[in-house]
Fold this sequence. Notes:
- By secondary structure, the chain is of the alpha/beta class.
- It has helices at 13-24, 66-72, 132-144, 155-166, 187-199, 246-250, 295-309, 373-385, 391-395, 401-406; strands at 6-9, 31-35, 74-78, 82-86, 91-94, 99-101, 104-107, 111-113, 126-127, 147-151, 170-174, 203-205, 210-215, 220-224, 229-232, 234-237, 241-243, 259-261, 272-274, 279-283, 288-290, 321-326, 329-335, 342-348, 353-360, 363-370.
- It folds into 3 domains: 6-112 and 241-309, FAD/NAD(P)-binding domain (3-Layer(bba) Sandwich); 126-237, 3-Layer(bba) Sandwich (FAD/NAD(P)-binding domain); 331-406, FAD/NAD-linked reductase, C-terminal dimerisation domain (Enolase-like, domain 1, 2-Layer Sandwich).
- It has 10 helices and 26 strands.
- Strands 3-2-1-7-19 form a 5-stranded parallel β-sheet. Strands 9-16-10-11-12 form a 5-stranded parallel β-sheet, covered by helices on one side. A 5-stranded antiparallel β-sheet has the order 22-23-26-25-24.
Amino acid sequence: MATAPYIVVGGGQAGLQVCDSLRKFGYEGELLLIGEEPVLPYQRPPLSKHYLGGDLDAARLSFRPASHYEKLGIALRLGVRVTAIDRERREVVCSDGSRLAYARLALTTGTRVRPLSCPGAEHPAVRYVRTLADSDGLRAALGDARRLVVVGGGFIGLEVAAVARKQGKDVVVIEALDRLMARAVSPQISNYYATLHRGHGVDLRLATGVTAIEPAVSGVRVLTDRDEACEADVVVVGIGVVANDELAAAAGLACRNGIVVDECARTSDPLLVAAGDCTMHMNGFLGRELRLESVQNAVDQARVAAGTMCDQPEPYVQVPWFWSDQYDVKLQMAGIGMPCEESVLRGDPAAGSFSYFYFRDGRLCGADSVNRPADHMACRRLLAQGTMITPAQVGDEGVDLMQIARG
Length: 407
């Protein structure tokens, strides 16, 4: 009797990484990757940046060419959604009616956009950026647009705003909280980016909520809780994402704002692992449970998941890191700096090259770096090694942080 394959559900960064890592761990059996989108696995970060702006073509979005999957013996079923997991029979049920047996199963189902909930939110002028099709649609819409309203002052919204301003569009950003990227960065970084965007002509409306979207003679009118009305040809919503854990929950797996996994990416079923944005995981570096939405987490946790599938479990202890490109400014984040007890500036914000290092309980816990890649890499290394460093050292530009990191 033939052995059932290992199946990976989800065709994003984590799904591809699980497949690649399974082969590197020595798994030689049948391997199947099921992806809901009808295209080869591709990079999502450029969708709101370089691809949206026309600086990157679709062919360069793909992680690997079709030959890569053939070479590694990874079978692809694209444009197919897994609708159920039958754990008793060890099968997945697909949207095309097929039932596929599995020996072990990896869930890398990712996230979906959080929809705007107000009257008029279903208007065709309202768009999101999550998939390649989303970005293609927005690119086309921006071509004829003159006025753009962005709802949400997080990474996606601000990246789209930067692209639109570079194209000469009038841009209004409406953010419900009192500062930009508030859930991810410190007030100092928020303030820097508010100045940056205003300097590029973006109209920022902070501490402002959207109450309705109405059709207008030309485009739509976005109404706010400050009794304001913003005219727009296109509205882009970037108010966060929701973990795709419904498939897992329906199968009886533990879920809590994501699929609950341990430090080795194991779910509550020993035959199932999960990795990437969809997981609520115990992070060994931070020593607490959380859900991370990042390329780093998708790649590193997927490697851990593959090791567990091959009975070579190792705990997930990697340092979180993130990045965002807006205009000609690159923001790189290492660790989880917020909340912190002390922040230390290194460099000069006026020169557009600086970092803020954050300390909690007397120890370095993270850093946000603007056009300062050496600081970012040093911080990642310091955090990974647990090297002790003082606020005075990071604040002194005469101190070589990388040298300290290297020991």
